[in-house]
Amino acid sequence: MPKWIIPVGAGGEHGVRSSFARPVSDYIDNLILNANLAVNHAVPIGYRVAIFSCTQDFWVRANGTAFIPVDDVSDGQGCEFNPVVYDLTDVASISLISAGDAVISLAFYR
Asked: Which of 12, 51, 70, 109 has CA atoms 20 to 30 A from the CA of 58?
């Protein structure tokens, strides 16, 4: 289990199931996304995981420029819709785009 996920709870005592929590990130970026305008963001050095949270739907592309698809993308070069968490292995930058104005948080973990 990654060290950034911590088991918490009673471990099954009295019918209570264990759950998992993550520690507070020591590196969080907040970005303003203007409608239909991609923002490219460098991954901070030494961080291995990013957790996304956004006020609107958004699209992401690692190591490239995000776009909102308007036609089929069937060559493996599409963008991901509303990802929750990314493993940042071999990722130097993350590009984000939204159809409407939005605020996104990126919580990074080592």
From this structure: 109
Place of tokens 């509303």: 82
pLDDT in tens, 52-61: 999 999 999 9
Taking the CA of residue 40 as centre, how many other CA atoms within 13 Å lie in the half-sphere pointing to its CB? Answer: 7
Q: Which two tokens stand for residue 95?
A: 């590009």
Over residues 21-70, the pLDDT tens digits come to: 889 999 999 999 999 999 999 999 999 999 999 999 999 999 999 999 99
- 97 three-state secondary structure: strand
pTM of this prediction?
Answer: 0.83
Report the run of H or E that residue 96 belongs to, with start and end.
strand 93-97
Give the bridge partners for 20, in sequence order: 7
52: how many CB neighbours lie within 10 A of its CB? 18
Question: Rounded to whole angstroms, what are the CA distances from 21 to 6, 10, 74?
Answer: 5, 13, 36
What topology does CATH give the domain 24-109? Jelly Rolls (2.60.120)
